[in-house]
Amino acid sequence: MEGVQFPGPEQLTLFERFVKGLRIPYWLACLLLAVIPGYASSNFGESLFSLVLWTLLAFYMFYIIRYMRTKVVEAESEIAPLCPQGEETFHKAFSRLPKSKPQLVLWLTIGLISIFYFSRLFRFSTYLDTALTIASISSFAVAWGTVFWVYTSSIYGLHSLGKQPLKLKAYSEDTMLGVGPLGYLSLHLAVIYLSAIALGAVATSLYADLFTITSLLAFVIIGGAFFFLPLTSVHRLMLSARLRERSLLRNQFNQLVARPEDKVSASAETTLTDLHVLLSDLKGLIALEIVERKALSMPTWPFDSRVLGQLTLMIVSTIATIIAQIILLAINI
After folding, report:
1. How many CA atoms lie within 13 A of 201 on its CB side?
2. Residue 60 and residue 198: Cα distance in Å, rounded?
3. What is the pLDDT, as a whole number, of residue 41?
4. Coil, strand, or helix at residue 265?
5. What is the C-alpha R_g of the chain?
6. E strand or H helix at 130, and its extent?
7. N or C: at which end does the chain have fewer Cβ atoms within 10 angstroms?
8. Can you give the pLDDT of all 333 residues of the chain as single tens digits?
9. How far is residue 209's CA from residue 177's CA, in Å, rounded to a whole number?
């Protein structure tokens, strides 16, 4: 439908709207909101280290909500020119990001499940401690629910863009055909998302339990799988572009090979013009060979191998922390 305006990633999430209403700097609001879950959660570890760790985790999750969304906004200037209808296509792809209903559903789902499960840990002498613990779990439900939604909706937006007939750049202009920003945005979001899980794994290692370990592992698997979701569609586009480039070069090669027989004189004497034509065609063949070699080296993924290594290291580190939790749990059992 023409003329339809889609809400883009510029629109704030529910949590950001709440913070905006406080009329204080975003980082300060995140810090103040992190103190309550940090203090309440420290009751499980009963140490200053636990308080600092949980406060840091809460602050980090609150803060990266805006950070991830703004990264998507910043990428618009590089990605929108590739889209069939420019900004409209970009906004349509990310129109899910600011939606309120999915965020509320995630908040309630994560909060209720967590409160129900961790109610066995509410062994406090006062109602205040119990209220603080419930507030802590609710705060983490809001933080993690929003982080999870921003990450998954952003990745799905990139996946939607990858299925569009993007205006790819020429290989001579950009070796990544212009889709590098899609790959690097996907990577950046995945690293931020997984770093939150890694920090959460360190914090919960103070009292590992089966529910926490299973949840962390599930979120790691989901995050890793979502990282590759938009890249598969972009990979197909880049692969098709490489095949087209090779086909074009092959046609040019065949034309050059056929030309000397038509242009060289059939007489016994070879003229200077004939030699010039032969040398020109030979030069063209050499140039085509060089270009074809470059075409064979055209990447079919919107990032280099080092990028994949960085993400793999992040996933392995997170899983290693979770495995350490499993070992601790087994020892306690």
Report:
1. 28
2. 12
3. 62
4. coil
5. 28
6. helix 127-162
7. N
8. 455 577 788 999 999 999 999 999 999 999 999 887 766 665 555 567 777 888 888 999 999 999 999 999 999 999 999 888 888 999 999 999 999 999 999 999 998 888 877 766 555 556 776 777 788 888 889 999 999 999 999 999 998 888 888 887 777 677 777 788 888 898 889 889 988 998 888 877 766 677 778 888 888 888 888 887 777 777 777 777 766 666 665 665 555 555 544 544 545 455 666 556 656 666 655 655 655 565 555 666 666 666 667 667 767 777 777 777 666 666 665
9. 47
Element (H, E) at 256: helix 210-263
For 10, how many CA atoms within 13 A lie in the half-sphere containing its CB? 10
Q: Residue 208: left (phi > 0), alpha (psi -120 to 50), or beta? A: beta
Element (H, E) at 316: helix 305-332
Residues in the chain: 333
Give the span between the Cα atoms of 265 and 190, in whole angstroms: 64
Give exposure, 301-330, as e/b (b: 16+ Cβ within 10 Å). bbbeeebbeebeebbeebbebbeebeebbe
* Contact criterion met (CB below 8 Å) for 268 and 318: no
Side chain identity, residue 40: A
The Cα 111–Cα 139 span in angstroms is 8
What is the rounded distance in angstroms from the CA atom of residue 258 to the CA atom of residue 278? Answer: 11
Give the distance from CA 242 to its chain's centroid: 24
Q: Is the separation of the CB atoms in 130 and 44 below 8 Å?
A: no
In 80-99, alpha helices (H): 87-93
Pair 89, 163: CB distance under 8 Å: no
Which SS3 state, helix, strand or coil, does residue 72 take? helix
